[in-house]
Write a structure and sequence with these properties.
By secondary structure, the protein is largely without helices or strands. The protein has one domain. It contains one helix and two strands; from the N terminus they run E-E-H. The protein has one helix at residues 30-33, and strands at 20-22, 25-27. Strands 1-2 form a two-stranded antiparallel ribbon. A hairpin with a 2-residue loop joins strand 1 (20-22) and strand 2 (25-27). The longest helix has 4 residues, at 30-33. The radius of gyration is 10 Å and the shape is globular. Pfam families: Metallothio_Pro. Keywords: Metal-binding, Metal-thiolate cluster. GO terms for molecular function: metal ion binding.
Length: 51
């Protein structure tokens, strides 16, 4: 299986074994799945997709 990338538009993280699935899209963490609605940081250390 090919490694997939998070569907968050600014995120370049790869999906782990248990991605968060919302509305048919796959995200690396809950913050990305909720589109950083309250400014939450990505769970991947060093990722700046919330900014």
């Amino acid at each position: 299986m090919t490694e997939r990338q998070c569907d968050c538009p600014k995120c370049s993280c790869k999906l782990g074994e248990h991605p968060i699935v919302r509305h048919g899209k796959h995200y690396c963490c809950e913050a990305c799945a909720k589109h950083h609605e309250h400014g939450e940081e990505c769970a991947s250390q060093g990722c700046k997709c919330a900014h």
